[in-house]
């Protein structure tokens, strides 16, 4: 829904609706269970979008418009992705996505996430 609504935080600051969540739990405190529950609805929606996309590809005259402008397979779930690839996919595909990981280092600990690159990634994710 991020691309569908803007929120005014004050008279001058208007931006997209975003939801940031961070859970810090110790081993054995059901992180994976909670993560799977959170992700379940997104996986179901992505599966539905892919099914509709494939049906549309086999029958292009179908009235439902489920194809992104780029004609790329719709994707709303991201885990192991660079900020450049995420930016491209958001600009050419579905505008509301979930970037998640059960391990924060999978997103912010890569080789390309050092120094200025990490700050640029954080700034991009804040504005995306």
From TrEMBL:
InterPro entries: DUF3987. This is Uncharacterized protein.
